């Protein structure tokens, strides 16, 4: 392709909780995300899975493995044992970059230890050195919804400002140990999810803070994470002397359902509160006025001080990274919702959706890149994108995933088009490049990878890896630049 940027980084992404497994050895604690079990589709309706129902008592009673439940994120795709084979596969497919997370639970299992867990450091040291040997650049996430559960249990998670210092300590250890091996850092994955699910994003449970409203909980937990992230940006800049630290935001692109002005106003509010707010915080370093007004309406009072506000202002990120899977619609009238349960997930009659109701919209990626570039003028990186599909291994021990090739082609083309329009985009990592456990549903059967992993939803299987058709397509794309 003519407009293929020469130094653009094409790659894939995973997270520790969804890939590693091996949760009980070598001094590892469980991350908060590993406390959620697999729930069969037919049983899901009977369990109150709205976000406010993520109470600590519920996690402890139902989820501390007392009911013979299966916790897929404690097993992952056995990456902890197969990491070398997996990185060999990434090298064979000619990935330029690999995004992974360093599990906080392996390094400081309780958060408040004075010394890091050596076994955890050894593991990531081996993995990162091997990536370097193979010529694969690395983007490391420090918390991919991976606050250690003991921090939630003992300290109340990120609602407690002591956790900010624990996170900075963890980051300092990672910068010291791995500063030379990691090319780009992302402190907190999808930081905006904390305002939607503070339990998952911040290990903070409402019942630990009597008298606190849910809105207060979610925005205070989020605020403390913004401060923690800014402190990590400051520390990274001082320790590493590079400008290589970015944010990671779940980008919720949505369109107005029609041109009725009331719907345009609703869409504008959505853009502000569900998208720009988060990018504004990390790129401009202060609360936008529309959020301050919203806080007044919601009776949210952020506990902060001038020192914290200065930290936010003075330590903005070097690049913007975000996940982009789909787009939705918003409006006050005539919006029907898809099965995606997040904001702005109204149906769009012009788009097709995956089996999970995620509406496929490559042009929305082009729109998003242009929009973010215009607004922030910071380099952009798509840190997650991809298509979840219940792939089936065929007789030839491969998967004919033409649907995925088609999805990737269209999204790659959208990126190139945005670059052609002038947006500064420097890389892309496809989500779940080697099949792993789904973040939202804990299913293994919601697969994203170029490589199939032989485990089912209950972790039955050999764990063996098989290259899908998309694996060969991606490799060829890297060799020839042909879509
Ligand atoms: P799964 C919700 C909406 C958009 C992205 O999701 C999200 C979520 C939370 O699940 O998360 C990111 O596996 C997340 C990954 C996750 C991926 O999207 O539910 O950073 O960990 O696996 C895809 O299909």
UniProtKB/TrEMBL annotation:
Gene3D superfamilies named in the record: Glycosidases
SUPFAM superfamilies in the record: (Trans)glycosidases
Active-site positions on this chain: 384
Signal peptide: none
Xref: InterPro entries: GH, Glyco_hydro_1, Glyco_hydro_1_AS
Classification of source organism: Bacteria, Bacillati, Mycoplasmatota, Mollicutes, Entomoplasmatales
Gene Ontology MF terms: beta-glucosidase activity
Family: Belongs to the glycosyl hydrolase 1 family.
Transmembrane segments: none
Keyword set, alphabetical order: Glycosidase, Hydrolase
Name used for this protein in its record: 6-phospho-beta-glucosidase
The organism of origin for this protein: Williamsoniiplasma luminosum
GO cellular component, one term: cytosol
Gene Ontology terms: biological process: carbohydrate catabolic process
Pfam families: Glyco_hydro_1
